[in-house]
Amino acid sequence: MPTAAFTTLGCKVNQYETQKILESFEAQGFEIAPFDAPADVYVINTCSVTQSAEAKSRQTIRRAARQNPNAIVVMTGCYAQFTIRRGEKLDEAHLVVPNPDKLRTVEYLLEHFPHFKAALEQARRQGEVPARRRSRAVLKIQDGCNVYCSFCSIPYTRPVMRSIPYQELLDEARAMVADGYREIVLTGVLIGDYGPETGSGGPDLADLCALLSEIEGLERIRISSIEPTLISNRLIDLIVGNPKMCPQLHIPLQSGDSRILKAMNRPYDQAFYLDLICRLRERIPDCGVSTDIMVGFPGEDELAFQNTCSVVEQVEFCRAHLFRYSPRPGTPAEAMRDHVPDSVKSERIQQLQQVCKAAARRYAARFLGRVERVLVESRSKLSGLMTGTSDHYLHVEFAASPSLAGQLVRVRITDLAADGVIGEVVSG
Ligand code: SF4
């Protein structure tokens, strides 16, 4: 099957259009390759917004031609249109598709280079369609909670601590992998407590992860949510040493203020949480940390709220789920004084959203230019690009074949987006 590779310069519209062009190639039967891999056709969707964008467009075209001197290099996009208008010619570009016709690039190619048509017809006669794969499965490993946070009703409804026996979990995980899943997310109410005392049959959480990682075909293991006080050094060692473990943890903060944490009956204070993040990131560089934060707990004054904002700024959470406190019947917090008015909760939620957004952006910026392993999930309705989640839990958008859904690909992070990052699939 002939192969085609794509890259984009410039804006979001170009990114989206590249995705469309890519899909039209795929519909014709081309196999899609990463742009830095050998391919029969390279398509460069160029940009001319600045002189440097034009220069970069030219460099990219030359790079493609050098990569495979036998390949057909196709350029389209705004810079391509300018070269047509100015009567310029770039020796390395074998075909220039006018910008308004860019979505018909594959038709131009087949018309000008009929040998691809013949190769595709032959491939079609012998062809087979790759099976579609699934992406991520959730495996519940534990139930019950005995922490009794003062705002939460779960310990009253699920007081019995129960770890699912590890043999059952291994069987279930193997079945998930056989079903096509590549990533398993471990979940439960208090999964850090998983262990022999509550019926696991032997392993604690770290040992369970190690056992799961031996399953052939399972490529990533992610821990959905773990209390800060239950992250053991052995679990950190495992994340450091086992490439199947995602370098990311979801660690509920709830509040960044020690007084409020005490009132919440959370078993740590601000200093403990910050120290934990430092220790984690010393061992697991750029460890992704996502979190839950509750806004407007009784007694939360402006200083307490600012302490939460300060922790967000220091930690740079990759994602944060913000909740507005609402009383749960029968919980100690319901009977507390100093309930925060709804209007103040709304203001604080809005303010905190901005702080979280800026902090997540700073965290994502650490990855610019770096290559991340990404599990391809689905196509974004908004941008039209394929989306996926990286090992560090970045939301990544990139031009790729929808047939890659459920597979792990390597993506170079090229830009920041409103809610994540933009990237380009690379080989290897
Ligand atoms: S918030 Fe979580 S840790 Fe606290 S009591 Fe509820 S379930 Fe348990």
Task: Please tally the helical runs, counting DSSP H or I stretches of 4 or more residues.
Answer: 13
The assigned structural class equals: alpha/beta
Kindly report the average pLDDT value: 92
> Which molecules are bound besides the chains?
iron/sulfur cluster
- Could you name the CATH class of the largest domain? Alpha Beta
Lateral arrangement of strands in the main beta sheet: 6-9-10-11-12-13
Report on the structure:
This protein is an alpha/beta fold. It has three domains: 1-129, Rossmann fold, CATH 3.40.50.12160; 136-365, tm_1862 like domain (pyruvate-formate lyase- activating enzyme, Alpha-Beta Horseshoe), CATH 3.80.30.20; 368-428, Nucleic acid-binding proteins (OB fold (Dihydrolipoamide Acetyltransferase, E2P)), CATH 2.40.50.140. Helices cover 37% and strands 22% of the residues. The chain has 13 helices and 18 strands. α4 (105-112) packs across α5, α8 runs parallel beside α9 and α12 (302-315) runs parallel beside α13. The chain is elongated and about 75 Å long. Iron/sulfur cluster is lined by residues 145, 147-149, 152, 154-155, 189-190, 227.
